[in-house]
Q: What sequence folds into this?
């Protein structure tokens, strides 16, 4: 679906809310104040490259599996522009993550991102970082990051790692957008079929994904704020699903927390109309 819609830019924020600092697997002083936006290229790279498949090794006859990691200059240019524009609206800092010391595709990636930065966004501070170092720095000093841009497979890994900064995948929304068509707005965790029908899911990532839809896709920032404020209010009141529960908080299921969030949004809407 993402490829068919050409939704090539995946925006994945990882924000550690003050109410959930204690839910992170890292020390509070490390994660408090973290606010990262990961921009992942979504319809290219090794997940879509060709050729791919199974074969046999010419020398031994052993069975092999192979995939192709490939990016064209236009593919890198367009995702770089998305990331630079987002960085301008945030802290004016962008880290581009690659593996240019080993991979030719990453050498092209780095060259193109550098060209776009110097020619079109000279005001944005650009830093390049190898994927292994970026993964280490994200747990060592996550507040050093503001906006990150990277390819499909590296973005997949880093965004899931970032979820542990926030305490749970259930808190991470995402937006997959194109230049001129509809976007896809969904929690990073997907549909979570393993807990379907058990009233265990955390609905906050879905609500925050709807907020991203209102903000980026529908140009309804006030509606986005109401949804985001509903999440903040529920956390302030101590409501927690099992993935975030801690002693002294109100443990609730998906349905009950959904009702809490709905009441907050409805009340905010009524107040705005009054």
A:
């Amino acid at each position: 679906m993402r490829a068919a819609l050409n939704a090539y830019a995946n925006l994945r924020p990882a924000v550690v809310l003050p109410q959930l600092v204690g839910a992170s697997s890292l020390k509070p002083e490390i994660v408090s104040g973290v606010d990262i936006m990961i921009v992942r290229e979504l319809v290219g790279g090794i997940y879509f490259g060709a050729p791919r498949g199974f074969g046999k090794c010419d020398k031994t006859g052993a069975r092999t599996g192979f995939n192709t990691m490939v990016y064209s200059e236009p593919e890198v240019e367009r995702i770089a522009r998305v990331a630079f524009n987002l960085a301008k609206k945030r802290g004016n800092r962008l880290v581009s993550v690659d593996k240019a010391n080993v991979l030719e595709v990453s050498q092209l990636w780095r060259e193109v991102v550098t060209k776009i930065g110097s020619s079109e966004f000279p005001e944005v501070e650009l830093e390049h970082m190898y994927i292994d170092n970026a993964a280490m720095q994200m747990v060592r000093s996550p507040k050093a990051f503001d906006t990150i841009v990277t390819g499909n497979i590296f973005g997949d890994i880093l965004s899931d790692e970032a979820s542990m900064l926030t305490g749970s995948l259930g808190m991470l929304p995402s937006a997959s957008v194109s230049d001129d068509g509809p976007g896809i707005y969904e929690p990073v965790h997907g549909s979570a079929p393993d807990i379907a029908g058990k009233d265990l899911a955390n609905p906050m990532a879905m609500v925050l994904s709807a907020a991203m839809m209102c903000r980026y896709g529908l140009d309804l920032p006030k509606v986005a704020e109401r949804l985001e404020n509903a999440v903040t209010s529920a956390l302030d009141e101590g409501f927690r699903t099992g993935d975030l529960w801690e002693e002294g908080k109100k443990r609730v299921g998906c349905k009950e927390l959904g009702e809490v969030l709905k009441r907050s949004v409805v009340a905010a809407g009524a107040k705005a109309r009054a």
